[in-house]
Known about the structure:
It is a single chain. The chain is mainly β. It has a single domain (2-123), classed as Metal Binding Protein, Guanine Nucleotide Exchange Factor, Chain A (Beta Complex), CATH 2.170.150. 13% of the residues lie in helices and 37% in strands. It is built from 3 helices and 11 strands, in the order E-E-E-H-E-E-E-E-E-E-E-E-H-H. The strands form 4 sheets. The chain has a 3-stranded antiparallel β-sheet, with no helix packed on it. It has a 3-stranded mixed β-sheet with strand order 4-3-11, with no helix packed on it. 29% of the residues are buried. Pfam families: GFA. It comes from Fundulus heteroclitus (Killifish). Keywords: Metal-binding, Zinc. Residues 4-114 form the CENP-V/GFA domain. Belongs to the Gfa family.
Amino acid sequence: MVKHSGGCHCGAVRFEVWSSPDLHVFHCCSICIKKQNHHFIVPKSCFTLLQGVDNLTTYTFNTHAAKHTFCKTCGVQSFYTPRSNPDGYVAPHCLDPGTVRSVTVEKFCGDQWEKSMQAHKTIKDM
């Protein structure tokens, strides 16, 4: 495990996350495809928001289970709470350079979310 740091573009939002230097990343649903957002899941206990709580706003849709949190100033989504793992956070595209050794990308069919969750052992175990 290594400590990754990251945040939004303007620097108002900063976080730390403990995870492997080898990231297992998912390419998922309709909103993620539109935003070109890949993501990895870490437990809430491994995520710390360092600054910017007052500069965050949240977008939800469909079941409103996923919380797409982004900076009010620059609009960057540094992390969010996924529907698949509501006690988890994701954030690979906003990690600062220097701590990621490798990235493995796996597809997850978010358009058929319920069926995909039943069949997808990897994401269910995170």
